[in-house]
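[agent] plan:
  1. take the single chain provided in the ticket
  2. run structure prediction with default settings
  3. attach structure tokens to the ticket
  4. add a short note for the reviewer (M.T.)
[agent] executing step 1
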Amino acid sequence: MKTVIVIGGGASGLVAALSAAADKQNRVLLFERQQRLGRKLLATGNGRCNLTNTAASPAHYHGEDPAFVTEALARFTPDDTLAFFRSLGLLTVEEYGGRVYPLSDSANSVLDVLRFAVERAGVEVHAPCCVTEVNLAGRSGFSVLCEKERFSCDALIVACGGAAGGKLGGVKDGYELLGSLGHRRTKLYPALVQLVTATDYPRALKGVRADAAVTLRRGDEILARSAGEVQFTDNGVSGPAVFDVSRAAACGGEGVEIVFDFFRGRDSGELMEMLRARRAGLPNAEVGDLLIGMLHNRLGKMLVKAAGFHGDVPLYALSERGLSAVLDVCRGFTLPVRGTAGFDSAQVTAGGISTAQFDRRTMQSRLVPGLYACGEVLDIDGDCGGYNLQWAWSSGVAAGRLET
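[agent] step 2 finished; step 3 output follows
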């Protein structure tokens, strides 16, 4: 019988343990530093758990070598993920953009079926149990120190997650453990995270949601683009479209700006005609009401103000150039980016252990036979929309197969 230790009871660790336990010749031990398994999983998708995306492909992933995900995704696809969870008794529903959620609309459902599966598979769970040391044991095998007890194993899977979501258990343990065995770590950045801006506009719009095309730039250089829902916070901007450019913002250094087009996909000529009609139809209305019916009221008033017009000026006083100026702001509202909300608020870590030191098919270390890694601890992060959990499932299954 082979003894397998999995370090980390998050998404990838749970699936890696189940994958390893599928071979009844394996004795599988799962170590988790938190009291409860899968705590970070409960926060995904705003508590709904966006467990995969049917459009998952290497194009949605980032890192030094995004193509590293190719074989794992091909061998355990989103369809395989849905079949796997269906076998555990989970009902799912597909929503916009290929996002898949549990029918219950609760992340607890996903975690519950995984916990029950781990129990049925006979995985020995040690939680809370903090692994502080990993050593090679002779010519093969490993010695693992958990609290004050030492365990031996034939194969070791590191699935500790990343530095993101510190309040929910995000740690750097995996980087340190793999580093102690000779593996290189790339620079870490928070990703899928709120951006902090350097103006007061967001505070006045706190809670307002809008659809927009989003461009991140530094001078004339386009760093990233996205589109979808944005949300204003008391000190910046959030929402899926912002999350997707936040990685580039974190890595972008000084002078980064985020630009919003609140009329994406619409013709500027037609929009100008609407503004002219509003001016002609309500000449005595205040200029602050120019965008009523077109955008959220608070957002519309703020954009008119940003264009340089006070709210009590009558619409008839707004010239053609003035209408054009308002439309320009609506289609190019720009905020300087001060930074991100940091790792504690981030959903995922950009960067991690270099994938160049791991086999993309098996997730086995190229440096240490019998050592595997999966999930966020590796230098792979995905876009917002279920891609990171799909990577957790695909890489976890691959690691748990213990192939060489």
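[agent] step 4 note for reviewer: Residues 211 and 229 are 5 Å apart (CA to CA).
[agent] ticket updated
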